[in-house]
Each structure stands twice: as C-alpha cells, then as structure tokens.
Amino acid sequence: MRKTILAAVIAAVAGGAAVPVLADPPFDAKDPKYAPYIAGEKRSGYTFAEPETRAMQDDDFSNPGFLWVEEGKKMWSKVDGKAGKACKDCHGDAEKSMKGVGTVYPRFDPHANALLTLEQKINQCRTERMEAQPLKFDSKPYNAIATFVKHQSFGMPFAVQTDGPVAPYFDMGRRLYYERRGMSDVACKHCHEDYWGMHMRTELLSQGMPNGFPQYRLKWQTLGTAQKRIRGCFEEVRAEPYPVDSLENTVLELYATWRANGLRVESPAVRK
Amino acid sequence: MPTPRVKMPATAAKGEVFEVKTTIDHDMESGQRKDKDGKPIPRKIINKFTVTLNGKEVFKADWAAAISANPYCSFFLTATESGTVEFKWQDDDGSVYSTSQAITVS
C-alpha cells in the first residue's frame, strides 16, 4: 500500500504536477482584464499581488483605503486655521479641481522654490493659505486628505515632469536609485529593475511602481504614503532611512514616480 | 471617532436572503505591543458587534485581540419585516459606535 502511494507521489512529481501553494499570483499580459494595470513593459504592483488582495482593492467597499477617502472628503469642506477657510473655499469641487493633480506630483513648486510631494504641497497650502497647523506626517488627517486628493485622479496615467527646474532633482534621484546601500549592499534598481518577478526568499519582487500610493498595506494594518514605504524599503535592506520629507527621500519618490509614468493612479491601492 | 460604513439593499422581497457588508476604521490595538519606551500599549479593540432589526437582535459577534485593524464583517440576513437595521460596535473603553439603515420589505 505504502509503495503504491510512494509511486503515485513520484509519478506526480515526475509529471510536473504543479504545487499550487507555491505558485505566483496569476498574470497574463495579453489578458484584457490586466490592461489597466500595465503600460508597455511597466507593471503595477497590482499584477504582483495575490488574487485575494486584488479582490479587496477592486471592491470599493472592502477596500479599507476608502475609509481614508471618506475622511478626506469631510476634511475638504471643513474650515481650519486663522484664515477661516476650507480647501473647498479656494478649490471648489474637488471632483473637478483636483482631477489630474495626483498624476504630476512630486513637482517643482516655484513659490516654494523646491520640489514638493503632494502631501508637502497640501501642508504648504495649509500653513500659507489657511494659516493652519501643518498636518503631522502619517497621522490620520495627513493620510486622509492626501488620499482623497489623489483619488480624484483615479485611472489617469502618471505624467511626472523631469525637465526644466526638476532636472537637478531628477538626476539626484536617479543617482540615489542606483546607489548601493545598507548591510545588504543593494540599490533600489537591483530588486526593482534587474530582478523583479524573481523571489527574495519568499518575497515576489515587484517593479516598485508607486502608482497606488497612498495605499493600504496589510502588513501595516493601515494606510501610508510613498515616503513611508521608501523608508520601509531602506530598513529591509538594513540601511539607515532618510528622514521623512528630506530632499533625498523626496527625489527618490520623484524618480520612482517617474518610472511609473504611463501607469494609472490606483489610490487607494491595497497591497500585502 | 471611527466612521462606520455599511452596505446593504434598501429594499428586499419577503424571504429574500441578502448580504450585508460592514466595516469601521479602528486601530484594534491588541495589547501585545510595546511603545518606544518598552511599556505595553493597553488593549483597545472593538469587542462586540451587534446588529438589530427594530430592536430585535439578528446578528452578533464577539471579537478578540487577533481581529485585524479596520475590521470588515459581512453576513447574510433574511428579509422578514420592514424597519431599521441598527449596527453597534462596542469598544473596550465603553464607547459605542453606531449607524443605522432603513429597509423596506415587500
């Protein structure tokens, strides 16, 4: 009896029977249902996610990121600060005025004479126009308003500019992207350019496209921004992360977002 | 203050089985973690979730420390009578978050 079982097992292995538990999430570039998540060779993190995670993102109700979108929607029309203004008073209807805004950040801001992420721009608006306190990084309102604004560009392709005044930032971003760092002595490009689709231990490496940020991460059990994720990546390769909103972290976000140019905004995405 | 979200049909035929989806944003602090100074962070979770129709209990769940943040709960109900379905999430600290939705059964 035992011999029969053993023979059957050997036959199954020799016959190349797939072991489903170890299989990568399904993806076929030719399947039209993946079309919104690819642009040429570029693949959104969605295509690297498990089917259960994708299902969670696809349903606006089961997607926990929408809790932040709703919170942000309330903030949009709530008056804050000494100027007695809400976002709505200057920008009107977010569905119209914020459409496409999420596709161009990080962007050079002539007023601040610096490169700003969407979150930094919101805080600039708060301190200068609303005369309110800047929102604290990674706090609930900080993530909520950013997710709400970014969500207005849902489905639109990224179009981050890299020329003109952005050029020096972009060059610095590229340099940092290719620079080896940390105890693992790897650069961003090793995982996300050279070895995507392969495994680092059990981890399936994605192309590192930040088109879903701010996104809900199951590991975090909460929603977070690209700045937070980049710092997480640094810790994973045992490098000292750059401070939040530092020039280095911002130019890295710029370079990573430029790589995703052409992919569509998925905010709020759900990832593992 | 956590914001509850509920999705269910506004109308149903008598005897029809329909799905109710609920979620609420909550940290569900398990009580197992420590803060920067090494002190345990006290447990703060939603420990009870109850659903009533016209004051009559139709669904109840006891939640424990392992339930993830922003708990999502979906279940099925059978349409019997029209009225108000009330959802209540009971927090460890005693506060109750609630929302309600009307249903018309024909």
Can you tag this structure with a few keywords?
heterodimer, A: 272 residues, mainly alpha, Cytochrome Bc1 Complex, Chain D, domain 2, 11 helices, 39% helix, globular, B: 106 residues, mainly beta, Immunoglobulin-like, five-stranded mixed beta sheet, three-stranded antiparallel beta sheet, 0% helix
Write the layout of secondary structure elements.
The complex is a heterodimer of chains A (272) and B (106).
Chain A: H1 2-14, E1 38-39, E2 42-43, H2 51-58, H3 65-76, H4 87-91, H5 94-97, E3 107-109, E4 114-116, H6 118-128, H7 140-151, H8 167-177, H9 188-194, E5 199-200, E6 203-204, E7 215-217, E8 222-224, H10 226-236, H11 247-259, E9 270-271
Parallel strand pairs in A: 7-9
Antiparallel strand pairs in A: 1-2, 3-4, 5-6, 7-8
Helix pairs in contact in A: 3-7, 8-11, 10-11
Chain B: E1 4-7, E2 11-12, E3 17-24, E4 46-53, E5 56-62, E6 72-78, E7 83-91, E8 96-105
Parallel strand pairs in B: 2-8
Antiparallel strand pairs in B: 1-3, 3-6, 4-5, 4-7, 7-8
Description:
The complex is a heterodimer of chains A (272) and B (106). Chain A is mostly helical and 272 residues long. Chain A has two domains: 42-59 and 161-271, Cytochrome c-like domain (Cytochrome Bc1 Complex, Chain D, domain 2, Orthogonal Bundle), CATH 1.10.760; 65-151, Cytochrome c-like domain (Cytochrome Bc1 Complex, Chain D, domain 2), CATH 1.10.760.10. Chain A has helices at residues 2-14, 51-58, 65-76, 87-91, 94-97, 118-128, 140-151, 167-177, 188-194, 226-236, 247-259; strands at residues 38-39, 42-43, 107-109, 114-116, 199-200, 203-204, 215-217, 222-224, 270-271. In chain A, the strands form four sheets. Chain A has a three-stranded mixed β-sheet. In chain A, strands 1-2 form a two-stranded antiparallel sheet. A two-stranded antiparallel sheet of chain A has the order 3-4. In chain B, strand 4 and strand 5 (56-62) form a beta hairpin. In chain B, the strands form two sheets. Chain B has a five-stranded mixed β-sheet, with no helix packed on it. By secondary structure, chain B is an all-beta fold. The model of chain B has no long low-confidence stretch (mean pLDDT 93). Chain A binds chain B through residues 61-62, 64, 66-68, 70-71, 218, 221-222, and chain B through 3, 5, 7, 21, 23, 25, 27-28, 68-70, 72.
